[in-house]
Amino acid sequence: YFETVIHQLETQELEKIFSDFDRYMKSLLSTTVLQLVLARGDCASAAKCCLHGAHVGSEQLAEICKSFSEETEKTEWLNSLLMLASSATLAQQLLQHNADVTAADHAGESALMC
Hints:
This protein is mostly helical. It is built from six helices and no strands. The chain has helices at residues 2-8, 11-39, 43-51, 58-67, 71-84, 88-96. Helix 2 (11-39) runs antiparallel to helix 3 and helix 5 runs antiparallel to helix 6.
């Protein structure tokens, strides 16, 4: 069965399926790790988990934002996370914490383009 399905799919479609699966698994793992490191008070690691696709709640987001010692570091993190935001709710929360929707990455793309 799978051999037939694979032959019927174009290479791009198959790549998209695997890419979506990889993103989903990465999100599951990083969300679990996020909960563990936040329970231990390790907000720096929690911030990294978010960049790897962890689902973060508003209280968790506020806790991580408070942990940054420098405003520029927090802003860069928020802007990076905004570029990766997969839901309007998360994007709105990031904007409430002063993420810059017009900030561009190294390729010149902003969250508005994603």
